[in-house]
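Hi W.,

Here's what went into the run:
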Amino acid sequence: MRNPYRTQKIAFFFLLIATLLIVIPVGIIVLIIIEKGLPAISWEFLSDIPRKGMRAGGIFPAIVGTIYLVSGAIVFALPIGVLAAIYLSEYAKDNLLTRLIKLAIVNLAGVPSVVYGLFGLALFVVFFKFGASILSGSLTLGIMILPIIITTSREALESVPYSFREASLSLGVSKWQTIRHIVLPNAIPGILTGTILGLGRAAGETAPILFTVAAFYLPQLPSSIFDQAMALPYHLYVISTQVPNVDEKTRYGTAFVLLAIVLVMNLIAIIIRYQFRKKKKW
Amino acid sequence: MISAKIAIKNLNLWYSDFQALKNVNTTFVANKISAMIGPSGCGKSTLLRTFDRMNDLIEGVRVDGQILIDQENIFDPKMDLVKLRKKVGMVFQRPNPFPLSIYENIVFGERIHKSNLKRDQLDESVEISLKSVLLWEELKDKLKKPALRLSLEQKQRLCIARLIAVKPEVLLMDEPCSALDPQATARIEELMRELKNKYTIIIVTHNMQQAARVSDDTGFMLLGELIEFGHTQEIFTAPKDKRTEDYITGRYG
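Here's what came out:
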């Protein structure tokens, strides 16, 4: 006769193993990068320009470049993404056009990042003649994170209970005022979470900035949005593959800074979401 | 003759292909409580939601006929929905205060309707609204507390206060007590009797005792038709229609 407790134990065992298999690689990656990268971190490393053919000095221009690019992407993608999400969740009727738009957004999320890079090159760098610049790079990254922002914003807007809207409308408050004063304020934490996840993605991507902005080596800081800039992911690629005899410490230090920026952003997203869930009582 | 606050003329309503209201004709008088009763799905809530055109939110709704509120046809294309809904407020089945403080809940509508309101005007409106739902004494020291922490009954009263603050003339109540216990229900009914001096109240209820207790007029609906409408006492003691009698005596279905 079969022992139901034994099969249950076996099942639990395999489920646990599968779960551990997810956690272990993440843990190992983080540990290795911390172990090898942390010794490289110093004030000089964070605040100095790269020297001696990027074999010494710091990574300051790359950090600044990444911050510029990410900020630019968000300035572009957040308003458009949120407005589109409001339109889709509050105004759009369920018809062929809307379904096409939603399908396009899902597909946009699935486009490989190198394709965004090529698209950015063709549209912003060449067609609009922005050249390889922070502007082109930011716009390209912005388009890449649009689907993330639209999808999370739509979820946040749609999770605001229908009864709030009903109550507001029945007070003689117009639809737009209801969205502005009831729906949007209650959706902001969700929208922020999505935004920060998008930021993390934008900060870490190499391919979209490859043709649109990233400079191989640029010892000074960019002075306008039409300048090229260094960026952490591309800098990491360069010193790992294109420049011989770079200290392992420098490479892992760069990876450490990049990872830290992305993880901190994700952590902020998690904290906001947690605070929101704690407050949410409906 | 008593003037009709609301008059319904040959009202038909369809949800896509399904006809939910069939040729409804009646009038509702000011300063009275009218109750609509009938089995689930008879169209009583749908009828209630046509008075402030909340049905507009549902896709595929079609209406013909007229509803005149103060002699004004609310289906007129020129009808201002914001104006209509200020005049005709709705209390819902589940109390639905906003996730804001008690104070902010009450002043929400006013804040949006009028700009540059002074602090003391708002304070006054909060006091008047809460007093009219008999909550002022209980809550006057807790106005900054979140409304979502109130009891169900307090929430429902707050929702009524929130409506009163925008100075409506008609109060629509869609089974306002169905989430409440019997004591709270009795107190809300008491409040309704108090409020009818100032407002025209239409209540939808599946609770016949409640209709009998609280209303002046009662309408019985069945399968989208208004079978009978008249004085509550007559409807409950001497209904003219066999179907009304069957429903009231519990022989329906």
